[in-house]
Amino acid sequence: MSFFVSLLVVLAVVCFKPSLQAQEIDIVFVVDSTSPITNSQFAIYKNAFVAMADALKAGFDRHLLQVAILQYTNKNYNSPDYTNNWFYHNPTTLGDCTTVQCIKDAVNNNMYQFLYSSAFTATAIKRAVKIDFNNSANAATSKKFLILTTHRLATYGWAADNSLLPTSYALTSSNNITVYAIGIGPYVDQSQLQIIANNGTSNDTVTLLNNVTTLGDTLVNIVSKIIPNVSIPEDPLLLDQLKNLNPARVTEIENIENRVENFSRNHFQTNGTTYSSGDAQLRIVVTNINQETYNSNLQLGSSHINFTLQTKGVKRIVIAVIVFKINTTQTTQTQPVESGSLATTQYISTINTTYIAIVGWDADSFKRLTTDEINDQLPGNASFHLPPTSPETICKLIKAGNISLKNQKIKKLEPICLFYDRVERKYSDRGCVTITGGVTDNVTCKCNHLTLFTVLLAVQSTTIPKGIKITSYATESTSVVFLIATIIILHKSKHSGDRVPVQISLSLALLLFHAVNISHDLAIIHKISCVIHTAANQYLLLSSGVWFLIEGIRLFMATSFPVEFQTQDSSKRVKFFMSIGWIVPALVVGTSMAVGFSLDIYMKPQPLYEQCNEFIQVSKYDRCWLAPGTPIFYSTVVAPLAVVLLTNFMIILKTTHVMLHSKKMRNRGEDPGTGDALRAVKSFILLFFMLGGTWVLAFFTGIGNEISNEVFMYIHSLVNGSQGIVVFLLYCVMDDDIRQEMLTCKREADVGPKQQRNVAKPNGGESSNAEGDESLNAKGGESSNAESGESSNAEEGESSNAEGGESSNAEEGESSNVEGVESSNPK
Q: Which residues does 157 contact at the CB level (< 8 Å), separation at least 6?
């Protein structure tokens, strides 16, 4: 009994053994195009190939055929060389054409006759094998055919090519290429054609023609033999293999529709059949059409598919719809959100990602229905509903590292409807709309074409390059050091008035602002410290902007109303400035926090926290800063900074105008000269830096946008991160009064040790002390008097200038510091 059971099993395996996977076809026509062929004969040649093109239709319709044409010739004195492009021409190569019309156009427009009379046929065959067939995208899997048409096989008086003919057969047979040889006219030796085709064993694939007039029919007969020989077998493993595809490998994705179509062509007699294997389901429908559109409503598994197919001119169609799931986690594609931006979008295939493919073809002509022959998109539209991947699954994949988001700030995490673009060879959402309420809701896709669809997880994120971080840390740390030095020097200054307190306050605000920025990565660890950091950063940013504005207002008052500015009580101005510079920003920040947190718009939790906090431990914020794009952000950050920058820019223009058109120039009746203009430009640049003009760069680095440009971020980090250095140079190094005080302190420090050395001399006695005192008095008195005189004169001149309403330093350009515009820093 067991013997009969085994026998039945064996018979079943033998009888129902599945056929091989469908093979692609590559055909290369090797065409003798030498000059002995007359112009009229060559015209018939071209017409023969145009007629033959229609016989290729079945192969093109099944998406299995590639065709190339290789024309060849040679010179009498040239040795055979298959790499010499001078003697070869391809009107079309394998893969260039996918339609009959394309072949016809290539023949009519690109096929021409050579001027040379010789033909190295064996060498041309070698080129076809080595170059044309090898360059095929299907070289490893296709069934290959070479069709030769020739008027002569060797050159006049040159036997070398004849001797190479046996090698051409060895080459084609070793590469599994079937050769058809067509000889035309009286100069062709049939035995040579046999050597080329089958090593002289038979005439099965050899044809002799008396003239070129019957070439068209011969080519059609040969092509008709080739195309039916490659059948389209069923694909019994299709449904089982789809779930193991790698969605990131474009070659595997590109084959899905072809495999589904091939399967349907072998099973379309079984109308309305659904094939299932696990999560994969394939539905084949055959129907007669009496209208221009076909509407379908299918439920395959958990997916609901609604589509409309345009069927104008088609009487009977076969439609195959497949739904399957891929059980791998893979980042299928990464692309920038905008050119040059730091934001990218990753399309991620998660576990059980659903794919849908819809194909259709004419049951009578076997032609595939398409209006886009390049992309193979069916004419119609689709709407389908898919269940989403659960958030818990996504979050656990991220935690396990299956979805890598290291060093990335996630901006969006949402499903997206995509199709596979055959032209771009990537996923695209062109023509598709995604309708969903979030990651947890069902996904509805609406697309204006029919092809291969899927829903992937779109993760938009921003990665800050390490170079920008290093640049920011380096420049801001350096700024902190220089700002500390600036505050110490200004604090020790002997100047009275409101100038020093304002500059110390501005330096202190910038110092704290840069210090808080440096501590960002420490604050982000905990949500409370992140909120405190955000509030402090907002406060110090606003405070720095207000102090820039106060510095500009002081400059405007000193240049436009110098007398009033000098006579007013500076202590009252200092109190007013202090209340504005330190208290007003605090009120703004407090109000924005109260309103922002009550409306939940002050800070924005990262999307990963909102979706994964229930399943894995995730930091609430991915950066310690206000939520961009909100009314709170624009009203308490962007708008105030814009007002400060605009106001200070107008003050800079006003001050520069005053310098060019001062009262002294008008009294002399002189127009501003080149030197004065250069000094004005210099002052404009210095004022631009001193009054915070460089902050305008922040508006180009994504201040109100989640998409930042890398170039502007580098510039912003370098320029504004180095602001402490600029403040030190302007307030200490380039300021005449402060620089003079530092030089005086240095001289006093140098004189002190000399005094001690003179006093400590032995044997000096009274005489030594007296001499020392006398010497010191002489030198010190002279120096002191000189310095005192200079200082006194400076102060008198300063007062005089202030009363006269102008500054001599500003006019003459003697002071390198722009504060000279304020009557040499009015007190």
A: 76
- Tokens coding 342: 């730091």
In angstroms, the CA 344 to CA 567 distance is: 60
Q: Give CA–CA dist 196/746, Å, rounded.
A: 100
Residues in the chain: 827
Report residue 522 as tokens: 């420490």
DSSP string, 294-310: EEEEEEETTEEEEEEEE
Cβ atoms of residues 457 and 389 within 8 Å: yes
Q: Are 795 and 496 in contact (CB under 8 A)?
A: no
Tokens of 649: 């820019």
pTM, rounded to two decimals: 0.52
Residue 120 is predicted with a pLDDT of: 80
User: Looking at residue 94, what is its pLDDT?
Assistant: 93
The closest of 552, 545, 726 to 642, measured between CA atoms, is 545
Q: Each residue of 447-490: pLDDT tens digit?
A: 888 888 888 888 777 767 778 888 888 989 999 999 999 999 88
Residue reference for tokens 């602002």:
513
Average pLDDT over residues 610-632: 81
| Selected residue with higher pLDDT from 334 and 373 | 334
Residue 787, Cβ neighbours under 10 Å: how many? Answer: 13
Q: 323, 355 in Cβ contact below 8 A?
A: yes
* Residue 200: partners with Cβ closer than 8 Å, 6 or more residues away: 191, 194
Backbone angles phi, psi at 311, to 5 degrees: -130, 35
Name residues whose C-beta falls within 8 Å of residue 543's C-beta, 6 or more positions apart in sequence.
509, 513, 581, 582, 585
The contacts of residue 359 (CB under 8 Å, 6+ apart) are 257, 260, 261, 264, 319, 320, 368, 378
Q: Residue 471: name the closest of 697, 703, 715 by CA.
A: 715
Cα(207)–Cα(780) distance, integer angstroms: 121
- Return the half-sphere exposure (C-beta side, CA atoms, 13 A cut-off) of residue 699: 12
Residue 598 confidence (pLDDT): 92
Decide if 151 contacts 181 (C-beta within 8 A).
Answer: no
C-beta of residue 105 within 8 angstroms of C-beta of residue 59:
no
List, in order, residues 6 or more apart from 629 with CB less than 8 Å away. 704, 705, 706
Q: Is the torsion defined by CA of 574, 579, 584, 589 positive or negative?
A: positive
When mean pLDDT is compared over 344-358, 631-645, 656-670, the highest value belongs to: 631-645
Q: How confident is the model at residue 513 (pLDDT cuts 50, 70, 90)?
A: very high
User: What element of type H or E holds 470?
Assistant: helix 466-491
Measure Cα distances from 107 to 42, 147, 213, 658 in Å. 11, 16, 17, 78
Q: How many CA atoms lie within 13 A of 611 on its CB side?
A: 26
Determine the pLDDT at residue 441.
62
CA 180 – CA 154 distance, rounded (Å): 18
- Residue 596 binned pLDDT confidence (cut-offs 50, 70, 90): very high
3-state secondary structure 534-551: HHHHHHHHHHHHHHHHHH
DSSP letters of 117-143?
-B--HHHHHHHIIIIIITT-TTTTT-E
On average, the pLDDT of the chain sits at 74
The model's pLDDT over 372-409, given as tens digits with 9 standing for 90+, comes to 544 556 677 888 887 766 667 777 776 666 555 555 66
3-state secondary structure 674-723: HHHHHHHHHHHHHHHHHCCHHHHHHHHCCCCCCCCEHHHHHHHHHHHHCH
